[in-house]
Every structure is written in C-alpha cells, then in structure tokens.
Amino acid sequence: MNLDHYRSGEGPIPQTMRSWYLFGAGMQNFGRDDAPIIEDIPSTGADELLARVDAVGICASDAKMIQLGNEYPLFRGRDLAADPARMGHELALTVARVGDRLKDRYQVGQRLGQQPDVYYQSRRSAIGMILPGGMSEYMELGAEILQGDGGAYVLPVTDALSYADVALSEPWACVDAAYRPFRRTKPLPGGLLWISGNSDWFDLDFDLEARLVIASDLSEKTKAQLRVRAENIVWANGLTAEQVAQDYGDGGIDDIILLQPAADQVIAAQRALTRRGTLKIGARGAIGKVEIDISRIHYDFIAIMGTAQPSLATAYSAERNRSELARKGTLLIHGGGGPMGQMHLQRALTIPEGPSVIIVTNRGQERLRACEERYASLAARRGIHLIMLSPRESPGRLEALVDELGGCDDILMMFPDLAETERLPALLKAGGVINLFAGLPPGNAIAVDIDRLIGAGCQIIGTSGSSLADQARVLEKATVGQIAPARIVSAVGALDAAKDAVHAVNERRYSGKIVLYPALAGLPLTSIVALGERFPAVRRSLGADGSWTKAAEEALFREFLD
Fold first, then answer.
1. Looking at CB atoms within 10 Å, which of 196, 418, 492, 511 has the fewest?
2. Domains plus CATH for the chain?
3. What letter would DSSP give residue 512?
4. From the CB of residue 222, how many other CB atoms can be counted at a distance below 10 Å?
5. CA-CA distance, 548 to 26, in Å (whole number)?
6. pLDDT band at 351 (very low <50, low <70, confident <90, very high)
7. pLDDT confidence of residue 442
8. What residues have CB less than 8 Å from 155, skipping those under 6 apart?
C-alpha cells in the first residue's frame, strides 16, 4: 500500500483491530500486558459508518482518566473492570464503510474531524469516555454521533490539512472557545431574577424580560424603577439567595443583582446561581475580600461583575464583559510552556490585532527554551515583544516586570493552583481580564478583593471544553492558514506506543503534543528532532523552525507505507 492508496480509504478491511481500553485506575489497567487488545472490527448497520482512525492526539485528560479510573467524573458509577472504556477523543478519521441509508451523505475515503462532546437525546455521551473512543485502528459511528442533538458530530475536512491538524483541532477548539463572547449582556429573557439591596445611588436603567423577578429589601427609588422595568414581580423582603433558589428557581437563580451587599451575601449569591448565571454587584462603599468559588467560574461559566457608577446597565455592557485579548495590550500566559499554553501563544501571535507584549512563564527552563525556539521568529515578524520567564528560578521577577509594564491587560491561568490564582488579580491593570483556563474541583475558592475588581472594571472568567461550532471554526482557520494546529507536535508514534505516550505526558517529557498514527506499525514514540535524524526526507520537510508540517507527515507515511 502506498500513501495515495491509503488516502483513498479503499481496499480490504481487516477482520480484527488493535484498541486501547481502560479497565480501572492506574497504568497497569491501561491495555492488557502493556499492549492493546485485539477485537473484532465492528459491523456496520444501515445508519452507521465505519471510520478508519488516521491520527489520535494524546491529551492530559487521558492521563487523568487513567489515574482516577472509576473516580473520573464521567466514569462514576461504572465498573470499568466489567465495562472497560475504549479511550481516545482527539481524532482524525477517514470513512472506510458506509451504511446503506447514509450513502447519499458519506463516501468511502471522505475525511472527517470528530467533536467528542456528543449530546444525544439530551444526554451527554462523550467519546472516549461514555462512547467508545478512537484509540484504535477503526471506530464505529452510530446514531449518537451522526444524529445527535446538535446534528452530526463529525466535520468534513479537506486534503489541505494533515491528519495531525485534524486530530488537534479538538484541543485547539477549546483554546479558541476561550475567546468567544459567552456571557450575557442582559438578564436572561424568561429566566428567574433576584434583585436585593437598599441603595438610592444606583439606577435600574434597562428592561427586565425575566419570567419572574423577586425583589427584596429595595429602596423606594429602586422599587419605582422596577415597576416600570419588569412585569411579573414578587415583593419579598428578608430572603437569602438560597431561599430564592429553592422557593422560586428549582434550585438555582439565572440572574442576581445585589446593591451594596455585604461579603457574605456575595458568597451566598454565587453559590445560588444556575449554570451560566450572572451576578451583578452595584457597590460604592467597601465590601472587602470575598471567597469566590473559581471552579464554578471555570466549569459552570458563571459571571461576576459590578459597577460603582449610577447606571447598573454599565455592568452588563460589552466593554465590561470582554473575552478577546486586549488590542496592543500585555498578555501573561502563566504556566504556558506546555501544549495548551503554546496553542494560546500561537493564537495570540497570529490574531490580527493582538497584544504587543507577551510574557510566558513556566517552572523550568527547558520548556521555555523549546517555546522560544518555536515562536521567537514569529513574534519578531509580528513586532511582538516575547518574554520567557521562570518564576521559580527568578523569584519576584514576574511581579517586578509586570509593574514595569504597568500591569497586565490579560492573564491566562494554565495550571490549577489556588495560591497562584489568588495572587493574579494584583497583576491586572484597570479593565484587565483573568481567564481561568485550567479548572479545579468544585469547592475550591480564592479570596478576591471585590472592591478593586468592581472599581477597576476587572474580570475573572473561565472556560471549559468546546462545541461543534468551535471546532468547525478552528478547522476553517487551519484550512486558510490562519493557524497551524500541528505546529505544536513534539513527538509521534504508532498505536502501540500509546502507553509510552501517556507516561511521557505524566513525565512532561515533551513541550508539545503527542500524536499517534495507527497506520505506522512499528514506529516507537519518537521526538520530531529524532525523527528528522532518522529519516532525511522527514527532516527536509519540517518547518523552518523545526516544526511538524503536512509535508513532514506525508514523508513519514511514505517511509512506512511505500
């Protein structure tokens, strides 16, 4: 078989395939005897596809699943020993067989990207966790994937993209999704809103389209404005956030407006919000430090904003709910030496009106050096000052540097650490944004000077995961050359190298991503540098900075397939 024949997707399909399953917590339960298992190729029903797996990216969440086993959130209640999970969710696929009723929509040889966060009949069915994943030579695509709540959770791709580009479009979609507007700029129409607090300073200067407004302990001025701005109002003094959530909201409140609250009211209010809920605070005087559950910001997308201006509408304005990086600003990517940090860096270096200064921190220098080698020339071409810094090796240097620069406009928090997260607000300038890209388990809180956030118009936001639309947008950007997903690849291997790849992730052996190619039997996990030394044709096809390219991938496939 040569590369052209492989691309066609035609030819005999074997009767069996190799697959990696997780049978419980710990690396000893990943596969059998340090190897994938052999299983039958799935049959293909009339409404199903059989897809060949061309590439699978190794994700840090794969390592976490193996570590936690049944304790991993999406495995809870499942006996992995009896019902093992076939892993793999960063995938590039080619259609190998088409069910009879799908032949008008799919063809053998058609290339597909895969969005793993599948919803089917209002149930989450994540690939590689709930549904069988693609850490295999082939995978079945059934109704859950092809007829899901969001439509088909596969995305057609062109031959302009490498297999690695397509597989890594999933983590790239998580990065790109961190910058799309997702917070409401008005209370939820048809939702539940609670407004509480006695203050004549603030004006309720926007209409409330909530299905129900609960009003507690308001001034006469606010009451009069509320009667004009809302229709269905319940007047109930003395209520707490918990009482409102339980009595009127089926356990949660969509939007809360607090006027001159005490710190304990703010703490209780954030707990009472529904997913994607908003808490808007109007405050002139001091509230003090407030314990903010940052896991809710990251996983539940709750938004906490405020204003000291008379107009409460200012707290809902687009300017006060920024998610894109500030134009010509200063960006700190804290813990940015790893794969996800590098994706954020590449994006910041390539967007049309990005930052003028980017600081990348990492504990050790090795990843920083690799990052600088990969992106220094791009930064220079764009006229962006790129700074690499290890706070561990240069204590106090980060704070001094940020002070010299006048503060950060944007901070990306790339690793889950409470103490480090707690010190970040002090590094923001007025109007600055902290994006909590790394998540902590529920209940983890940091003490935040809420007065400074409100007075300076700063934000702490968080994002988690991606959608089908996010991944489609990334694939489009990659196709036109706006981003290069595979640029962050540091090592590749065959499917049999999966266990070594997970060990490498745990050991932080490589600065970038690992991609496995099931078709390249016999290829051990190998760095891009070592691969170039072994195969001159691959070396000649690498990028000018030594990065992985479509041409290098093709050269490698020819070495094995031809």
1. 418
2. 3-178+468-525 (3.90.180.10), 192-315 (3.40.50.720), 321-462 (3.40.50.720)
3. S
4. 25
5. 31
6. very high
7. 80
8. 112, 113, 114, 115, 169, 468, 471, 472, 475
